[in-house]
Amino acid sequence: MAEVLTAFAIILAVSYIFSEFFFKIKYPRVIGQILAGIFLGLPLFGVIFGKNIIDDIGFLADLGIIFLLLLTGLQLNLDKFRKAGRDATVIALFCFFLPFTLGFALMKVAGYDNIVALVVGACLSLTAEGTKLKVLLDMRALNTKVGAIMLGAGILDDIFEVIALSVVLFFVSGNVTAFVSFPFKVVLFVGIVYLVYRIFPLVFRKVEEEHSRVSTFSFILIFGIIIAVLSKELGLGPIIGAFIAGIIIHLSEHKKWEHVETVKELQVMTFSLIIPFFFINIGLHFNAISAWQNLPLVVMVLLVAMVGKILGSVMATPFTSLNISQTHLIGWGMNSRGAIELVVAEIARSAGLIPLEVYSAIVTMAIITTLSFPVVLKRWIKKDRSVLKG
């Protein structure tokens, strides 16, 4: 117990120092938190972070994403999100299939087999909602036109993430039934969500009337986690469930001051205690020695990943209501990774589907693309914030 508490105290302290430094020089705290993870991943700290500690950090990282998506659903401007639907769908499709195709082709040209090419293509085609949402929230860009489309495209991308993960798990376990039953699970989840959407406001109103703010907040957390677990058990992953739970709560809170209080309470808990572990976890995956030893492959994977996402978004421009500057910026947002692709890569590596050098290239790509988006968004907004509105 003392070992775990010591490790967590060190993690939070280092994360705080790094994030505050970047905040002082007017950059998003997320950059500092990821670099803190890379710093803590140095051999110097190997004694502190045993396997059990790493597993605990992974659990808190997953919990952080659930709370972040729950918070996003609570804060979302639903009107703008609805209007972004068509544009978000088009961009999500382009930003999935182009990097997937390029990643698959790169691995085949490099001499790897079809399974390696499939895993790399899947990892390059995915987007991490959590990594870019924190940046959008920090820069007050979430409820802009571009922010809403970026979020919508990312949520759709989460569906692709689940499919990609299912494909990799299929190759690992050969479980055909789980893969084939996926569409039925989606239909079942939608039906359950609809019933919950109809019933929840009645129950929530009773809780608000008869209990304190502490009890109401606890009820919200329990509801968000239950929907996230349900979503995960049905094969959709906890992210989608948490986001939908946030929207249902948002629609159920009729008093504005109560909604503001809920958002503030969840923000304080999430950003101060849990989210640092998510970004630390990304940094801990980085292995500088392996990346350096396989530098040509790392560079090629990184270039294909960035070109695939950014070019994919720009290519979608004629089919949307956006201009090239807006789709270019959205491409940088879709380029941010550091979540499910790391899970896909780790499962594939541990099952022997991909060699270590390919795994290192994927992890390095995920970290660099995640670090690049906050810098790009900050400079873009500083130059012309109107690009967010359209």
Strand content: under 5%
Structural class, by secondary structure, is: mainly alpha
CA(first)-CA(last) distance: 53 Å
| CATH topology term | Na+/H+ antiporter like fold
CATH class: Mainly Alpha
Explain what the structure shows.
- By secondary structure, the chain is mainly α.
- The chain has one domain (2-388): Na+/H+ antiporter like fold (Up-down Bundle).
- Helices cover 82% and strands 0% of the residues.
- It contains 18 helices and no strands.
- It has helices at 2-24, 29-40, 51-75, 78-83, 85-109, 114-125, 129-138, 145-173, 176-180, 182-210, 213-233, 238-252, 256-284, 288-293, 295-315, 324-334, 340-350, 356-383.
- Helix 3 packs parallel to helix 12, helix 6 (114-125) runs antiparallel to helix 8 (145-173) and helix 10 (182-210) runs antiparallel to helix 11.
- The longest helix has 29 residues, at 145-173.
- The termini are far apart.
- The mean pLDDT is 79.
Keywords:
single chain, mainly alpha
Compact description:
This protein has 390 residues and is mainly alpha-helical. The chain contains 18 helices and no strands.
Secondary structure elements and pairings:
Elements: H1 2-24, H2 29-40, H3 51-75, H4 78-83, H5 85-109, H6 114-125, H7 129-138, H8 145-173, H9 176-180, H10 182-210, H11 213-233, H12 238-252, H13 256-284, H14 288-293, H15 295-315, H16 324-334, H17 340-350, H18 356-383
Helix pairs in contact: 1-2, 1-13, 2-13, 3-7, 3-12, 3-13, 5-6, 5-8, 5-15, 6-8, 6-17, 8-16, 8-17, 10-11, 10-12, 11-12, 15-16, 15-18, 17-18
